[in-house]
User: What shape does this take?
Amino acid sequence: MADRQDAPTAVVVVDPDGQVSGWSEGGCRLLGWTAEDTVGRPVTDLLVGPAPTGFPEHHGTDADASGLITLRHRDGTSVDAVVTAQPLFGSHGHLQGKILTVQRWDSRPVIADRAFEQCPFALGVYDPDLRFLWINASSGRVIAHTEEQVLGKKYREVLPVFDRTLFPERDDEPYTEQLSEVARTGEPARLITVFRPLGSNYANAWATSMWPVRDAEGRVRAVANWGFDMSAEYWARQRLLILNEAGRDIGRTLDVIGTAQDLARASVPGFTDLVTVDLFDEVLCGEEPPSASTLAGRETITLSRAARHSAGQDADGHAGPPTPVTLAPDSVAARCIATGSPLVELAEEPGPGSEWAFGPGLAADPAHWPPGNPVIDASLAVDGLTGRITVPLRARGALLGVVAFCRSDRPEAFTADDLILAEELTAKAAVAIDNARRYSRERSTALTLQRSLLPQGLPKQEAVEVASRYLPAGTGAEVGGDWFDVIPLSGARVALIVGDVVGHGLHASASMGRLRTAVRTLADVDLPPDELLTYLDDLVLHLASDLQSTSHTQTTGETGATCLYTVYDPVTRRLTLASAGHPLPLILCPDGSTAPVSAQPGPPLGIGGLPFEATEIELPEGSLIALYTDGLVESRALDIDQGIAELLRVLDPRACLESLCDTVMDAATPAELRTDDAALLIARTRALDPQHVADWDVEPDFAQVPHLRKVAVEQVEAWGLEEAAFVTELVVSELVTNAIRYGEPPIRLRLIRDSALICEVSDSSNTAPHLRRARALDEGGRGLLLVAQLTQGWGTRHTTHGKTIWCAQSVPGTESA
Assistant: This one.
C-alpha cells in the first residue's frame, strides 16, 4: 500500500442512477480497484457498511459538499476517506451525475486543513497588499467575519481605521503596520497588541507572530500570521510591574504621611484612577493605633485623610495637610474596619468576557471569594465610579486605617486579580507606615529628651551677647546628639561650648545629656579648656567601657563625641579655646574681616592617650564668634568646605544676633537633604571698661592687710557700691591674709565691677583652700566659712602660674553671678 503522506486522490464519476461511470488511476492506487472492477457497478458497493442516507445524492447539486466515509479496499481493509462531491452538468444544463473526489482522511492535505481550521489560535494568510487569502474559524470569530465575507478584500476594507476620538478603545494600527513591514522586508516579526474590541469593556492583549510565505524562487507571495489572546498573562505581568514599582517607591522616607502619599501615587494611573488613604489620628501622631475593642465602643469612626491622588493630578504636586473623615457605622469603610476584610463594589454586573479576571485555572465562582465580594452598588455611578476596592490597612496585627482604590475613567470592572493586587499594595504600605509610625514615636521621644537636656534659656552674663538655634535632622533621619551651652565663669568670664555625640536616637540624646552635665561640672572647677577636654575624654572612655555588652547577642550604641570649649575674658578681651575633633569657630571682626584661628583640633573624645592644645586669641570689642556643629554646614548636597563658605557669607557682625540666627537657619540645607542635627551658637564680645577693674600687688607681709582693706573700700565706694563696702573689707582681709600665710609670692589683689562685685586674690601656690568646720576653742579656720556665708559664690581656679581665689557678691540693681 502506498505511503499515507503520498496517498493519491481518486476521482469517481457517478451517473444519476448512482452507477459508477468513470474511474481514475488515482482510484486504483487508493483503493486497489480498477476501472473494469468498478464501472457499471453501484457506487455504494465501495462502502463499508450500509450506505449513508441519500448517498451520494445528499451532497446536493448546487454547491460543493464533503463528508467523511469509510471505503472498502480491494484487499479487504477499510479506508477512512474524505469525499467531496460536485455536480456534473451537460451542454444543456441537465444534471448528468456527480464527480466525487476521494482523499484519505490521514493524508497530509486533509489532516493539515483540518488542523489549521480547528486551531484555537487565530490564523490568517494575506497577500502582499494585505488582501485576505485565508482565515480559520478562530480568526473569523476575532474579526466577527466569515472566510467568505473577507476573501479577496483588503484588511482596511473589512476593518477600517476608527476615529480615535469616537473609538479610543480600538488600536490595531501597529498590527497592520507590522504586516506591511513583513511583506516589504521579508523578515518575520513578533508583537503584542493591546486593544479593546468594539463594544467590550475589557482590553485584550494579543501576541502575534508574522512570517513571509515564499514561492519556489524565494519571492514573497503572502504573509501568514498566528495570534492568541494572552490577556491573562499580560495583565498578570502588568500587576507584577506595578508591585515592583510600588516596592521601590513606597516607604522611601520614614514619614507616615509621605508613605501614604507614596501608596496613592504608586497605584495611579497604572491600576486605578483615584486612591484615598485614611489613617487614625494616633498613627499620624506616632502613637499606638486604637484596638478593636476601643473601636467597637465608638458610634462613629473618625480618621484623617493622609493622602488622595487621582489620575488628573500631578504626581509631583504638593499634597495638603490631613483632613478629618468621619465614617458612618453602615459605610463600606466602617464595615471593612470592623470585619478586617476587604470589600469590592461594582457599579453594575460585570459583562460577558470579564470572567472576573480570575484567569485560566482559577475559580470564577463568586462563592470562592471572601464573604460579601463582589457587591453590586448602582449608587457608585452617581459618584462617577465604575468600581471601588476598600482594604483595611493592617500591620503587625494593628489596624492603622483604610485604603480605597477607585475606578472612574476606565470602563473595566474590578476583578479578583485586582483585589489581590490591592491587598498586596496595601500590605506593603501598611508595614512601611507602621515603621514610619514607630520611628516617629522614637524620634519624638529622642527629640523631647534632647530639647529637655539643651539649655532652656541662656544665662545672664555681661561678657558676651549670645543667641542660639537648634535644628533637628530631616524627617528621614534620627535625632542626633548635637548640643551647646553658655556657662558664666569666675572673673566675669564666660564659657561657650558646642559638641556633637556620635550616633543618633535615644542613645545619642542620653549620651549628650551626660556629657553636657560633665562639662558644666568641670567648668565649675574652672579648668582651662585643654585640661577640661582631657577629663572629658576620660569620661567618654569610661562611658564606652560601661556600655560594653556582656552578651554575644546584645548590641550597644556607638560612643564618642566631638567638643569645642572656649572661654572669653572681657577684661583682657582674650578668647581661649581647645577642640576635640570639632570644627573651629568662625570669628569676624567688627569691620567684617575674618580673624584667623590657628588652633590645631585635637582627636575626638573617646580616643584616649592624645593631648589637647589650647590657643589664645585677642579680639577687638564687638567681634562675632560663631560656634556650630557639622550638621549646619554639611549634607548630601554640600561638602563641609562649601558649607563653611556659605556660613561665612551670611554672617554679619553688625546684625541683630536673633535675626542673624534666623538668617543662618534659612540659608541652611533643606530638611530633606540634611542627615544630621544642626546647632548654632553666636556671640558678640564685649570689653569691660578699664575703670571697672582695679588691682594691687601684695607684699607677703601681714602689715599690708590693713592698707589693702582701706584701698579696696575706697575703690568700692568710688564705684558707688557703699552697701558692699563692709563685706568687701572683710573678704579682702580674709583672702589676702590666707594668701600671705599659705601661698607664695607674687600675690595680687583684683576687684572687678561687673554684674557682680568680684574680689580675686592670686598667688603662685598650687595648693587649693577648702572649707573646714572650726571647733569652739580654735583660733582659726573660720575665714573661708565667713566668705562663703557673706557672698553669693566663691571658688578656686588654677592658672599656669598658680591659683586664684575668688568670691562674688551681688550689687544693687543686678543679679548675683
